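Recall the central idea of this unit: under ordinary conditions, the amino acid sequence of a chain determines the structure it adopts. In this exercise we apply that idea directly, starting from the sequence alone.
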Amino acid sequence: MSRRAVFSLTVGAALMLALAGCKPSAPPPQIFKTQTDALEKAKGVEQQLQQTQNRENAAADEQQK
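Accordingly, the structure predicted from this sequence is:
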């Protein structure tokens, strides 16, 4: 057997073993879930504060008229 044939067989066998050893992995853990949940909650609070401020500004403008 030539060196090229031996090399090809070795590489082919290595690829087969590598692919056979791979199994579907579990979904990645949600490492940042608590941080993203807190960020979403903060955005909601910010939106509520902005709406309250807008209502207060509108009420103050009405009072001045």
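The mean pLDDT is 86.
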